[in-house]
Amino acid sequence: MSTVVKKASSIKTVNPFNNETVKEFDVMSNEQVDQIIGRADQAFKSWKKTSFEKRAQVLHKVASILRTKKEELGKLATLEMGKLLKESIYEVELCANIFDYYADNGAKFLADHPLDTAHGKAFLAYEPIGVLLSVQPWNFPFYQITRSAAPNIMAGNTMVLKHASNVPQCAQIMEDIFLEAGAPKGVYTNLFIPGRDVERLVADPRIAAVSLTGSEPAGASIASAAGSKVKKSTLELGGSDPFIIMEDADLDDAAKTTVYGRMWNAGQVCVSPKRVILPESKKAEFLDKVKAIFGTLKVGDPLEADTDVAPLSSEKAAEDVAAQVAKAAEQGANVVIGGHRIDRAGAFLEPTLITDITPKMDAYFEEIFGPVYMLHTYKNVDEAIEIANATEFGLGGSVFGKDTDKAVEIARQIDTGMVYINHVTGIAPELPFGGTKNSGYGREQSPAGIYEFVNAKLIRVTDSKALY
Ligand code: NAP
């Protein structure tokens, strides 16, 4: 039964399993937002002077609270955006690992870096730059905020978060967790504002920089707002990852890896294997295997342990993906399985398998953010690489086969920020995440993630006579 707690606004929890509104939040007034940014700015003045030890203590505590509350938080993510509970709980554990990673390694990454120079001594001092605005999407409601918060709070920046409007409770609880972990007020704060208000915030002189994960239009708008004020931005945008299956690949393994990889989070993953690229000679055999796995997929309640495919994040998301599939069919693609909404309450779409996609169709180039498996075939490796690189995106990708030296050679020719051999594009705290082309710029996670929003300041010490 739905319980409306506050008056209608655009920020609300709608459970995609049944499309019932669970809770609504008021959008913050400009005055409230102004106060929050002011507090974050004040907090920066002292947070930047705290020791790495103190910051690490807070981050470790955040990690420990996340682990203790993983069931509760997992249920919240599932309630708000529909993903399988087991995936939500895994996500919370991953976040705890990312917080621990930066708590354990941040001081080492940001230690003064000596430089070779002809005279005297020189080094880089990594200094925090101020209040960061972090704009994040709903598809991994805890992970997306973690990978921007953990390195930056460790580096001494403070952060205001504008999360996606459909995951307000996940957004708010993260602020609560920071406070419970001992972070001073203002170090990490949630903002309840709609996406259209973000540009105004980017212009605020107290905001030092902005980081956005989301769609290309949102990224372009934020990057241009930041550029016009000479502020740094990082963008993690969409992707349409190729997954190249080599001639020598085990087809059973390849079928399992690609189907489960594609159905993960109901296909709403920026680095999902969205375009599987297979030797033409293997098509019939491989399709039989893929179809057999599709036949076993259980679509349903994301809270149930044996569900394989969850609803999409919202009614609109399900409608949009169904429309993309319908358009592909209209343009001549072969929808082998699925393609339709499921006749039940909730944002459900049938797991879908499409073949025979040509460059004349939109589906050949665009990102489909749902449980849609697209199979392409190739005659030789050059053609496989050409198909892999045929989109404007450049996020992740995979090469799957036994000859891993050959796979690495192919990986080098794929125009993306990440290529995994024998695995779908994955996530680990110590490995960088990010793309090229229209998938954005900048990196999160790994040592690279902590250098995005610090001032690498040169300090050079010489004898004054060196100038003459
Ligand atoms: P979206 O519409 O761009 O939303 C993402 C965030 O940006 C939300 O907080 C949204 O707020 C805000 N936003 C929307 N329009 C904005 C604007 N004009 N100016 C400033 N902020 C704005 O993205 P989505 O469709 O929900 O998310 C899916 C996309 O994100 C996919 O393309 C996916 O591939 C990509 N993604 C990329 C990565 C990566 O790491 N590269 C990871 C996850 C997802 P509201 O909710 O209030 O509109």
From TrEMBL:
UniProt keyword annotation of DNA-binding present: no
Transmembrane segments: none
Gene3D superfamilies in UniProt: Aldehyde Dehydrogenase, Chain A, domain 1, Aldehyde Dehydrogenase, Chain A, domain 2
Domain Aldehyde dehydrogenase intervals: 9-458
Entry keyword Transcription regulation: no
Molecular function as annotated in GO: aldehyde dehydrogenase [NAD(P)+] activity; succinate-semialdehyde dehydrogenase (NAD+) activity
Listed SUPFAM superfamilies: ALDH-like
Keywords noted in UniProt: NADP, Oxidoreductase
Superkingdom per UniProt: Bacteria
Family classification: Belongs to the aldehyde dehydrogenase family.
Protein name: NAD-dependent succinate-semialdehyde dehydrogenase
Taxonomic source organism: Rhizosphaericola mali
